[in-house]
C-alpha cells in the first residue's frame, strides 16, 4: 500500500501542473468573456479608475461631445484587478493603461489612440456607426 | 634763564639731527620737527629754571623719546593714508568693472534668451543640484530654435524661386520632421523633470503668456495660420472646421483632467495639522501624481503632433508650405517682440515718477 502511495506521489506533480494551467486558461477565458459581455451592453464603454485623472479627461471628452458612456470603475469592482490584466493582454502591453475605451463592442484603445482618431475624424464616424452620436 | 635757552636749542638741534639719521624721513617731517621743537622751546625753559644739570640730561632723554614716538606716529599715519588711498582706488575700479559686467549681461540676455531662462529662474527656491536632462534640453532647444529660423528662410526661398512641387514637398516634410524632433526632445525633458517642462520656463516670457500644458494650443495655432491658406476648397474648409472643433474638445478634456490632478494634489498637501504621522505617506502619494503629469504632457504633445500631421494631409503641398512658414514666422515674431520688451531702457523703471 505504501508503494502505491509512492507511485501516486510521483505522478501527481505533472497532473497538478496541468490542472493549474487548465484552470488559469479557463479563468482567463471567463474574464475575457466577462469583458466582452460588458462591452457589448453599451455603445461606448470606458474602463476607468475613480482616482485616475486621465480617465476623468476621457469621460470629459465624451461628455463634451454629448455622448453617453457606460463607465466601469475597476477600483470599485471586486474582480477589477483581473479585468485590468485582461485589458492589458488585449492591448498587448505590460504597463497599466487605464482608461481603455470600447465603441460598438470593439476595442479602440487608450487615450492617445482615442485622440488620434478624434483628430483625423474617424471617432465621429465610429460613434455614429455605434449609434452613440446622431448629427 | 638766558644761559639755558640757547643751550637747550643747540641740544634740540642735535637731537633733531639724530632723529633724521635714525629714520629715513623726508623733508616735511623735518620741518615739522623744527616747528614743533620751536613750540616746545617756549614751554621747556619754565621747567629747567629750578633744575640741575642731571635733570637737563633726563629731559633730553625724554625729549628724544618723545621725538621718536612722534616721528613713528607720523610714519604710521602716513602709511595709513597711503593704504586708504589704495583701497579707495580699488573700490573705484571694481565699481567700473561691475557696471561693465551689468551691461554685458543685459546684452547677452537679449541675444541668448532661451539659454538664460532656466538659469534665471532656478535660483528661486530649487536646490543646487543641476539636472543633466534639463541642461541637455536647454542646449538642444536653443539649437532647435536656430534651425527653425533656417527652415523659415528655406521656405521663403522656395516661394521666391518658384520651386517645383517635389522640392516644396521635400521642404514641407523636413519641417514636419523638425517639429517631430521637438516633441521627442520634450518627451525626454519630461522624463528628466516634468515640472520644468510643464512650467514653460524654457520658452520666452511672451510665449509663456499663451502656455497650455507645456506648449501652444493647437486650435489657437490653427486659427492663426488659416488666413494664410486661402484660397481653400469647400471640402477643405469643412475638414478644417471639424479639425478645429475636435482639437478644442480634446484641449478642454485634457484641461479638465489636469484640473482634477491639481485638486487631488492640493488635497494630498492639506493634511490635518494635528496628525503629523502620515506626513511621509502623503508625500509619497503626491510624488506618484507627478507621473500623471507626465501623461498629460505626453497627450498634449501627441495632440499637437496629430493636428500638424492631419493639417498637412488636408492641404495641398503649396498650402502646407505657406502654413508652416506662417507658423514659424509667428514664433519668430513672438520672440523678437519679447526681446524688445526685455531690453527696454531701465530709466523708465528706476526713475521715480514725480506727480505734480
Automatic annotation (TrEMBL), chain A:
Gene3D superfamilies on file: Glutaredoxin
Record key words, sorted: Cytoplasm, Redox-active center
Glutaredoxin domain span: 44-108
Localization per record: Cytoplasm
Presence of keyword Transcription: no
GO cellular component: a single term: cytoplasm
InterPro entries for the chain: GlrX-like_pln_2, Glutaredoxin, Glutaredoxin_subgr, Thioredoxin-like_sf
Family: Belongs to the glutaredoxin family. CC-type subfamily.
The protein's name in its UniProt record: Glutaredoxin-C14
Designated gene of the protein: LOC101507039
From TrEMBL, chain B:
Family annotation (InterPro entries): bZIP, bZIP_sf, TGA_domain
GO CC term, one of those recorded: nucleus
Subcellular location as annotated: Nucleus
UniProt KW Transcription keyword: yes
Region Disordered, residue ranges: 42-64
Coiled coil stretches, renumbered: 84-111
A single BP term in Gene Ontology: DNA-templated transcription
PANTHER family for this protein: FACTOR TGA7, PUTATIVE-RELATED, TRANSCRIPTION FACTOR TGA9
Name recorded for this polypeptide: Transcription factor TGA3-like isoform X2
Species, as recorded: Cicer arietinum
Amino acid at each position: 500500500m505504501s508503494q502505491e502511495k509512492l507511485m501516486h506521489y510521483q505522478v501527481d506533480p505533472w497532473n497538478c501542473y496541468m490542472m493549474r494551467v487548465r484552470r488559469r486558461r479557463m479563468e482567463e477565458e471567463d474574464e475575457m468573456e466577462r469583458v466582452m459581455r460588458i462591452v457589448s451592453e453599451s455603445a461606448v464603454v470606458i474602463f476607468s479608475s475613480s482616482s485616475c485623472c486621465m480617465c476623468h479627461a476621457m469621460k470629459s471628452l465624451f461628455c463634451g461631445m454629448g455622448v453617453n458612456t457606460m463607465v466601469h470603475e475597476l477600483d470599485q469592482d471586486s474582480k477589477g484587478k483581473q479585468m485590468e490584466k485582461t485589458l492589458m493582454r488585449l492591448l498587448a502591453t505590460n504597463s497599466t493603461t487605464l482608461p481603455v475605451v470600447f465603441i460598438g463592442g470593439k476595442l479602440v484603445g487608450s487615450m492617445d489612440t482615442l485622440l488620434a482618431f478624434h483628430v483625423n475624424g474617424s471617432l465621429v464616424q465610429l460613434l455614429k456607426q455605434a449609434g452613440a452620436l446622431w448629427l | 634763564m638766558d644761559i639755558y635757552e640757547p643751550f637747550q636749542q643747540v641740544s634740540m638741534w642735535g637731537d633733531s639731527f639724530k632723529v633724521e639719521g635714525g629714520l629715513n624721513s623726508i623733508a616735511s617731517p623735518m620741518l615739522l620737527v623744527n616747528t614743533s621743537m620751536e613750540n616746545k622751546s617756549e614751554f621747556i625753559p619754565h621747567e629747567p629754571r629750578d633744575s640741575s644739570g642731571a635733570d637737563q640730561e633726563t629731559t633730553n632723554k625724554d625729549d628724544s623719546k618723545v621725538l621718536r614716538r612722534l616721528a613713528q606716529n607720523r610714519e604710521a599715519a602716513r602709511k595709513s593714508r597711503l593704504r586708504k588711498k589704495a583701497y579707495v582706488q580699488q573700490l573705484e575700479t571694481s565699481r567700473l568693472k561691475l557696471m561693465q559686467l551689468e551691461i554685458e549681461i543685459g546684452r547677452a540676455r537679449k541675444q541668448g534668451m532661451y539659454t538664460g531662462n532656466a538659469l534665471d529662474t532656478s535660483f528661486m527656491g530649487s536646490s543646487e543640484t543641476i539636472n543633466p536632462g534639463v541642461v541637455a534640453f536647454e542646449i538642444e532647444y536653443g539649437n532647435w530654435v536656430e534651425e527653425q529660423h533656417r527652415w523659415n528662410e528655406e521656405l521663403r526661398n522656395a516661394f521666391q524661386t518658384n520651386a517645383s512641387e517635389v522640392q516644396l514637398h521635400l521642404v514641407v516634410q523636413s519641417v514636419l520632421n523638425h517639429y517631430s524632433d521637438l516633441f521627442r526632445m520634450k518627451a525626454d525633458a519630461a522624463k528628466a523633470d516634468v515640472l520644468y517642462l510643464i512650467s514653460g520656463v524654457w520658452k520666452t516670457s511672451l510665449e509663456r503668456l499663451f502656455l497650455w500644458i507645456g506648449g501652444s494650443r493647437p486650435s489657437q495655432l490653427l486659427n492663426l495660420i488659416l488666413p494664410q491658406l486661402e484660397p481653400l476648397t469647400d471640402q477643405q474648409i469643412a475638414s478644417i472646421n471639424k479639425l478645429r472643433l475636435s482639437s478644442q474638445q480634446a484641449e478642454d478634456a485634457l484641461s479638465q483632467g489636469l484640473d482634477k490632478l491639481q485638486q487631488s494634489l492640493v488635497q494630498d498637501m492639506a493634511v490635518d495639522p494635528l496628525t503629523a504621522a502620515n506626513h511621509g505617506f502623503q508625500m509619497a502619494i503626491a510624488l506618484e501624481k507627478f507621473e500623471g503629469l507626465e501623461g498629460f504632457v505626453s497627450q498634449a504633445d501627441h495632440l499637437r503632433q496629430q493636428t500638424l500631421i492631419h493639417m498637412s494631409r488636408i492641404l495641398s503641398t503649396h498650402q502646407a508650405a505657406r502654413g508652416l512658414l506662417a507658423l514659424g514666422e509667428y514664433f519668430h515674431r513672438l520672440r523678437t517682440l519679447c526681446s524688445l520688451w526685455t531690453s527696454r531702457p531701465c530709466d523708465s523703471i528706476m526713475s521715480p515718477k514725480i506727480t505734480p
